Task: structure prediction
Amino acid sequence: MRAIRPLARIAKGLDAGKDVANWRLRQAVTGRYSLSRKPAGFTLLAKRENIMTDQMQHITLAGRPTGAPGPEHFKLETKDVPTPGAGEILVRVHYMSLDPYMRGRMDDGKSYAAPVPIGGTMEGGSVGEVIASNSDHFKAGDFAFGPFGWATHAVADEKMCRKVDPANGPITASLGVLGMPGFTGWYGLMEYGRPKAGETLVVAAATGPVGSMVGQVAKSLGLKTVGIAGGADKCKMAVEVFGFDACIDHRAYEDARSLRAALKEACGGGIDIYFENVGGKVLEAVMPLMKPHGRIPICGMISWYNAGGLGAGAAAQMAAPQIWRPILVNFLSVNGFIISNHWGDFPKFLAEIGPKVSSGDIKVVEDIAQGLENAPSAFMGLLTGKNVGKQIVKLI
Result:
């Protein structure tokens, strides 16, 4: 770990659904932050094997969960390394991303994207080295981000990939702060949150890659930022690392009413922007606190994902009037968005946020699990908040 980098990383054991009480914060002379934790033992789903150059491993969907996914829903398999066709590249994956949306791909209900078929490789973004190319845009030795899935090797169309230059910083940034999650936070806040100096913003999962981006950008624009996170240590991180004005531990409150009281005290005059990415008790607590002409960008609802159907199977926690009436009488703007529909704005995002990451103005925490076989355990932990920062799996 190099403390002079703005990226903080954690290498941890995946059976440690323990709190993060042993994290240590150190400030380097550059003013950037580094986070570390002593590695623990790993929970292995299968024995790791030495993979020959003509063999690869991948994790497939073994069955569709009806609730929270378990080890039985994933299978580690070995097969031949594929050969790239015209306009394609073959990549040896170094790091892969784990994100909440992947839980929806495990269901077969109607959604904005096709589900992963039974026996198909689990989908996701990854970054790695090009080892064979039939593309005019990539050559062997280049690093690329693309939809390579939960696999040690993958072939993808050049049009679905983008180059990543290791000279510009850790390649893992393409999976989080300078990838889809960071872009989601920035775009949703700027396009649908329409932030103004002096306003109050609330975002849950405040130490995750989306929530931390939302909070830091909002703070830089002169907003009061109140985070919500699971556990006192994550709340401390939200304030001390990511610069939130306050952070509420939702696990300390039994119901929405008590959580709402804490939020009301932290926010003072109410909430102008609620960046929605969790749903559940937090949404129920927030709605009565929204101010007139408030804005609610919606990018996810992780607390309901394990109910199936991207939350469609969740038991109702709020009656329709509790949701619709505040929207009506407070003239709220509520906008759902899927970030894959907005890639045209990605260069603008990189131009604005990239320099801030390089300078350390945008702080980053990465939670890095070791080994493809541990991806299912890390993913299951992600869905219950056991990760600390952006969840990544290191393959090499």
About this structure: Confidence is low (pLDDT under 50) at residues 1-6, 8-52. The two ends are 16 Å apart (CA to CA).
